[in-house]
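User: Please fill in residues for this 143-position structure.
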């Protein structure tokens, strides 16, 4: 008696494409890079200086006054968002059985990811701690 045939996974495209291979490679590369970015972020914020007691509005304002930290946090935001979105896309492809359900779930996923990326990027690059001219933050006095 022969074993039943195994069906192809639903997440696989009908035509030959490198899209799934590229997303698989992206997940591995972004995962490694995220480990470096996140642990670097945690080390700088928690281990250097006064640790967790120094983290407040002024601390973030001081960090984001430096373009290096803006790019660091932007890379963390974008990689984490795209990494998570790709993982959820794979889960939707694997578990949503109806084509219409898959379409709407992925539409909501892409829309929400786009909104988070846009708003997060805007916050990082338009953050101004000196909106109040009477602010006592050191960053505001330097300007």
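Assistant: Residues filled in for all 143 positions:
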């Amino acid at each position: 008696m022969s074993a039943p045939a195994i069906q192809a996974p639903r997440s696989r495209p009908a035509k030959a494409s490198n899209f799934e291979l590229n997303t698989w490679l992206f997940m591995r590369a972004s995962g490694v890079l995220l480990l470096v970015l996140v642990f670097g972020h945690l080390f700088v914020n928690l281990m250097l200086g006064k640790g967790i007691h120094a983290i407040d509005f002024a601390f973030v304002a001081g960090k984001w006054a430096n373009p290096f930290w803006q790019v660091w946090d932007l890379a963390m935001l974008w990689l984490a968002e795209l990494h998570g979105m790709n993982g959820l896309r794979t889960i939707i492809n694997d578990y949503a059985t109806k084509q219409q359900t898959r379409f709407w779930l992925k539409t909501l996923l892409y829309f929400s990811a786009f909104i988070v990326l846009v708003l997060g990027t805007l916050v990082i690059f338009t953050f101004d701690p000196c909106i109040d001219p009477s602010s006592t933050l050191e960053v505001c006095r330097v300007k």
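For context: The two ends are 80 Å apart (CA to CA).
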